């Protein structure tokens, strides 16, 4: 007999929350009448058909009653728990993190209807599927409790939340949620973070690395090296050897200054450094820093060997 169940008042609140989620701007008089109807049905003082007809006459729908009947008609046998052959640690981790299914939620609500919210061990055993009392209690408190509001936070709610955090600190979310009355600890913690998180500070990494402040293009090389500022010139040593002619050393009375060239396109680089075939009528290609032509360089190298 369902009339002897310990948690029927929670089912009345649950039924009203279902109605509130589908019917907007429900008058207080209508809420009072619906409360009476659901109470009468759950305590077996009214048949399902009579309660359904009354609901349709008041709000034009009966889906809340249909959902309550599905919860109340859950069988007594718990859901079977299917163990796999993985390690005990992996199985324990999955038990803590696996997502709740619709049938698990339905059986949890049925367990609350039967045993109330003060006997989670019995509720967990009724549910089955390897769920423990801590998981059942947390699921009810944070998700399924019909008192938990899903509506937006009002300025008055924000003010109360800040006052409670100032009073109890930012670690006592369960106590804060209990005083709020219609919010879970997770809702309170998350919303407080939203209220206290400021905008991005000036000069932060995200702003510094924006496309407006970070130019990946190198400036063009000046055609006249004399126009390059001194701080962009690279001094060479007074005496420097060249790998192409190891015995050749160029001595300078003053440092040789070269402009720092920007990174250029690789294709242009290859075209500039690859020797081309000599064409009649064009000047010979000169090699090295001394301006030696190819024939003179070959003669020098043969004599060197």
Can you walk through the features of this model?
With 305 residues, the protein is mainly α. Among the domains are: 1-73, no CATH class; 106-147, Homeodomain-like (Arc Repressor Mutant, subunit A, Orthogonal Bundle); 155-195, Orthogonal Bundle (Arc Repressor Mutant, subunit A), CATH 1.10.10. The chain contains 14 helices and six strands. It has helices at residues 8-22, 28-42, 48-59, 63-72, 88-97, 102-115, 120-127, 133-144, 155-168, 173-180, 185-196, 205-208, 266-273, 294-304; strands at residues 233-235, 239-242, 245-251, 257-259, 286-287, 292-293. A two-stranded antiparallel ribbon has the order 1-4. It has a two-stranded antiparallel ribbon with strand order 2-3. A hairpin with a 2-residue loop joins strand 2 (239-242) and strand 3 (245-251). Residues 92-144, 145-196 form the Myb-like domain. One of its GO terms (molecular function) is RNA polymerase III type 3 promoter sequence-specific DNA binding. Residues 205-217 have a biased composition (Polar residues). Residues 197-230 are annotated as: Disordered.
Overall form: elongated
Estimate percent helicity.
40-55%
Which sequence of SSEs, written as H and E, runs from N to C?
HHHHHHHHHHHHEEEEHEEH
N- and C-termini, Cα separation? 113 Å
Radius of gyration over C-alpha positions, nearest whole angstrom: 41 Å
Tally of individual helices: 14
How would you sum up the major sheet? 2 strands, antiparallel
- Mean pLDDT over all positions: 76
Estimated share of beta-strand residues = 5-15%
The strand count comes to 6
- Output the structural class: mainly alpha
The strand line-up of the biggest sheet is: 1-4
Low-confidence stretches: 199-218, 231-239, 256-264
């Amino acid at each position: 007999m369902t009339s002897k169940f310990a948690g029927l008042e929670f089912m009345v609140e649950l039924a009203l929350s279902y109605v509130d989620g589908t019917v907007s701007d429900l008058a207080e008089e209508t809420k009072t009448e619906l409360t009476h109807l659901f109470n009468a049905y759950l305590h077996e003082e009214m048949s399902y058909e009579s309660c359904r007809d009354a609901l349709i006459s008041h709000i034009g729908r009966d889906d809340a009653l249909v959902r309550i009947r599905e919860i109340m008609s859950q069988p007594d046998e718990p859901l079977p728990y299917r163990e796999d052959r993985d390690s005990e640690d992996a199985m324990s981790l999955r038990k803590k993190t696996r997502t709740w299914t619709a049938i698990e939620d339905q059986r949890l609500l049925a367990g609350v209807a039967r045993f109330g919210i003060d006997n989670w061990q019995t509720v967990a055993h009724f549910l089955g599927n390897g769920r423990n009392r801590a998981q059942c209690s947390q699921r009810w408190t944070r998700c399924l409790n019909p008192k938990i509001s899903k509506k937006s936070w009002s300025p008055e709610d924000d003010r109360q939340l800040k006052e409670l955090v100032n009073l109890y600190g930012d670690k006592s979310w369960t106590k804060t949620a209990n005083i709020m009355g219609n919010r879970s600890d997770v809702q309170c913690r998350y919303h407080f973070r939203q209220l206290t998180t400021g905008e991005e500070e000036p000069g932060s990494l995200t702003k510094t690395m924006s496309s407006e402040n970070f130019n990946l293009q190198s400036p063009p090389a000046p055609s006249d090296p004399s126009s390059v500022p001194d701080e962009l010139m690279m001094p060479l040593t007074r005496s420097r050897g060249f790998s192409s002619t190891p015995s050749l050393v160029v001595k300078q009375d003053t440092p040789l200054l070269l402009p720092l060239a920007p990174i250029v396109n690789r294709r242009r680089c290859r075209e500039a450094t690859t020797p081309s075939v000599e064409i009649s009528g064009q000047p010979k290609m000169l090699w090295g820093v001394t301006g030696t032509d190819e024939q003179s360089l070959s003669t020098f190298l043969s004599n060197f060997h």
